[in-house]
Design brief:
By secondary structure, this protein is mostly helical. It contains twelve helices and two strands. Strands 1-2 form a two-stranded antiparallel sheet. A hairpin with a 2-residue loop joins β1 and β2. α6 packs across α9. The longest helix is centred in the middle third of the chain and has 22 residues.
């Protein structure tokens, strides 16, 4: 009797980890891997948390410029809150990078990179003014807010409660309030995100405004993404009226936000920054 044997899955087959990882958009992949790496370094005791957070005297006097980036990917050591934060970061970055507002690069990863650069610069200025150590929650809410504006009619579901994506950041904030978490960092992120949205999507389309786009994606962002993607350069690099580029409403899952909303990286316990 002939026995049919089921083939053993190989790395790279459809549905494998490698297949999933390769499909992650580039900038999302950088944010995800960086956050996981910071968590691993802290969990195994290879790096002290104070080496990753935003301490300006260490930047200006000792030239520890990596802090300008690591403060955005710091989520503490491995824990439940770390896992939820990382998953929500991945989901929102992936959603937005796959369909960002066209600010000059054709609506691709270069536009998402420009959003992150502008937002991080603004958050660093605020962090400097108020001596904030960690800005990872704020940049998460910047991306979340921008995606909620990009696809406002997408239907989301948290614990059976259905709502439009437009209200996603506020639903997260409400959950944080109920769970006793701070909303300072999320509100800061929403404020910066709204500023970018207004300057890039609202003001240029306002009647009587003739100064042109204020936050146009620069060429170096396009060139960098072209190089990293193997030489592909976007064809459409012009602005598109919002009425023509409005996305089709779609179903999306937001269940991860319910778990991630209660506590941020700085609220899970004093051991996070020790």
């Amino acid at each position: 009797q002939k026995i049919m044997r089921r083939p053993v899955g190989q790395v790279g087959d459809g549905g494998s980890f490698q297949d999933w990882f390769n499909e992650i958009p580039l900038i999302t992949k950088v944010m995800l891997v960086s956050t996981l790496l910071s968590g691993a370094l802290l969990s195994f005791g290879w790096v002290n948390a104070m080496k990753l957070v935003l301490i300006w005297p260490m930047i200006t006097s000792k030239f520890e410029i990596w802090r300008l980036f690591t403060c955005f990917i710091y989520a503490g050591p491995f824990s439940f809150n770390f896992a939820m934060h990382t998953y929500v970061l991945y989901e929102n970055c992936r959603r937005y990078e796959m369909n960002p507002f066209n600010t000059g690069a054709g609506g691709n990863s270069a536009d998402f990179l420009w959003l992150l650069l502008v937002s991080m610069s603004a958050l660093l200025l605020v962090g400097y003014s108020f001596e904030m150590l960690v800005l990872s929650e704020s940049i998460l809410y910047v991306v979340m807010y921008m995606w909620s504006r990009r696809e406002p009619d997408a239907q989301l579901n948290i614990f059976g409660f259905k709502f439009k994506a437009l209200y996603l950041p506020w639903v997260y904030i409400a959950i944080r309030l109920v769970m006793g978490g701070s909303v300072t960092e999320p509100l800061l992120g929403i404020g910066v995100g709204h500023g970018f949205y207004f300057l890039s999507e609202v003001l240029p389309h306002t009647e009587g405004y003739h100064l042109g786009p204020l936050l146009r994606t620069p060429g170096f962002c396009v060139d960098l993404m072209t190089y990293c993607s193997g030489g592909y350069r976007p064809v459409n690099t012009s602005f598109t009226p919002r009425e023509q580029e409005r996305p089709v409403p779609q179903q999306a899952s937001a269940t991860s936000g319910a778990a991630a909303a209660p506590l941020g990286p700085r609220e899970a316990g004093p051991e996070r920054i020790a």
